[in-house]
């Protein structure tokens, strides 16, 4: 399977960062393409997007100020299939991307993604007290995988914190 291309640009409000693409994303070339993944529904229900987008429209979110990347580029069935060496390399590549593009917020889609990136063993949901890259706020959100056992309302509520921050930051509320 081929890697899913990043959607990055300078001046983004948020870059969403996942573990790595699913096989479905590898097949289609789009982020969060597995139909059992709740990512697009979460963005809409939390107020981060004005309508429900589909994975095939992922590049269009650049217009909203949102980008996409992963800590590991290689598609796998699950995060357990990622080798330690891939995380080590991915951590350096991701940091370089964040330093180059400098989004306002790096949103880690899952605590595990953040702990692999930051090498901090524990974290809480939401904004982190100390970011890894100066000038880029780290925000930890629940994974959007359909396997997550949290209630959808609770997941959406955490993402809503990000939406509220962005609306206040951009002076829309």
Automatic annotation (TrEMBL):
Q: Name one Pfam family in it.
A: UDG
Is Ribosomal protein among the key words of this record?
A: no
Q: Which residues form a coiled coil?
A: none
Start and end residues of each Uracil-DNA glycosylase-like domain: 6-152
Q: State the UniProt keywords alphabetically.
A: DNA damage, DNA repair, Glycosidase, Hydrolase
Q: Look up the domain of life of the source.
A: Bacteria
Q: Which CDD domains match?
A: UDG-F2_TDG_MUG
Which EC number(s) does the record attach to this protein? 3.2.2.-
Question: What EC class does the entry list?
Answer: hydrolase
Q: Name one GO molecular function term.
A: hydrolase activity, acting on glycosyl bonds
| Name used for this protein in its record | Mismatch-specific DNA-glycosylase
- Organism equals Paenibacillus haidiansis
The taxonomy runs:
Bacteria, Bacillati, Bacillota, Bacilli, Bacillales
């Amino acid at each position: 399977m081929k890697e899913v291309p990043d959607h990055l640009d300078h001046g983004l409000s948020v870059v969403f960062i996942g573990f790595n693409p699913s096989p479905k994303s590898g097949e289609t070339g789009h982020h969060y393409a597995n139909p059992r993944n709740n990512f697009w529904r979460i963005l809409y229900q939390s107020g981060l997007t004005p309508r429900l987008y589909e994975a095939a429209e992922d590049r269009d979110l650049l217009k909203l100020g949102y980008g996409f990347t992963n800590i590991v580029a290689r598609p796998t069935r699950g995060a357990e299939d990622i080798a330690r060496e891939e995380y080590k390399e991915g951590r350096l590549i991701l940091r370089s991307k964040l330093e180059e593009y400098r989004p306002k917020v790096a949103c880690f889609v899952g605590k595990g993604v953040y702990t692999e990136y930051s090498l901090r063993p524990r974290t809480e949901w939401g904004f982190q007290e100390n970011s890894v890259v100066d000038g880029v706020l780290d925000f930890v959100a629940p994974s959007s995988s359909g396997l997550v056992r949290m209630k959808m309302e609770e997941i959406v509520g955490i993402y809503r914190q990000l939406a509220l921050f962005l609306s206040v930051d951009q002076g829309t509320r």
